[in-house]
Amino acid sequence: MVSLTLLSTALMGLLAAATFLAVAKIGAKRTAPDADGSGDRYTVVVDAFRDVIQKPVVWAVAFVVIAVGVGGVALLAVGDFGISEGLSGSLLGVAYAAVGLLVTGFVFLGAYFGARERGLGNAHGVAAGSFAAGLVFLVLVAVQLLVGVVG
User: Fold this and answer.
1) I need a labelling partner for 40 at 20 to 30 A (CA). Which of 62, 82, 144, 145 fits?
2) 26: Cβ contacts below 8 Å, ≥ 6 apart
3) How confident is the model at residue 108 (pLDDT cuts 50, 70, 90)?
4) Rounded to the nearest 10 degrees, how much is the dihedral formed by the CA atoms of 74, 77, 80, 81?
5) CA separation (Å) from 32 to 22, 40, 51?
6) CA–CA dist 38, 31 (Å, integer)
7) Any idea which of 27-41, 47-61, 80-94, 129-143 has the lowest mean pLDDT?
């Protein structure tokens, strides 16, 4: 037990140090955008993603793929397709996790964009989204303690 605690402490220390170094490197490389409009690689990639994400067709295709994927996994988990019982239980867990992540992502993005539309900055939006996602996790823990929905 003690060795597991020491390993956990060492890994968390390494993670904190790596995060600090990554933030320091990112902060040191940032510069003002070019005056000629070409921008650096980060700006080019962000602009390309923005162009793709703002198209409704992309959102429609992503919704259909996610809905069919989660539905297919759930159908494989509960259907009689000759899948072993151990794999069937795992697939059902994957379906539950996917739906949980989708709901949490929806709550996070709803709070984020709600804060952004009210004139607050990115940090405020992320804080609101994180708080809302934390509330979802807290509700899940409370329901688990009262009813026992997980495992």
Assistant:
1) 62
2) none
3) very high
4) 90
5) 20, 9, 22
6) 13
7) 27-41
DSSP 24-40: HHHHHH--PPPTTS---
Token output for 65: 């793929």
Q: Does position 33 have pLDDT exceeding 60, yes or no?
A: no
pLDDT value, residue 42: 79
How far is 58 from 139, CA to CA, in rounded Å? 32
Place of tokens 């009689």: 80
Determine the Cα–Cα distance for residues 143 and 55; give it in Å rounded to an integer: 38
3-state secondary structure of 55: coil
Distance (Å, rounded) from C-alpha 105 to C-alpha 81? 31
Residue-wise DSSP of 63-108:
HHHHHHHHHHHHHHHHS-SS--HHHHHHHHHHHHHHHHHHHHHHHH
Looking up tokens 């809302």 gives 132
SS3 assignment, position 120: coil
Amino acid at 46: V
H or E, element range at 117: helix 85-117
Average pLDDT, the chain: 81
Cα gap 77→89, rounded to integer Å: 7
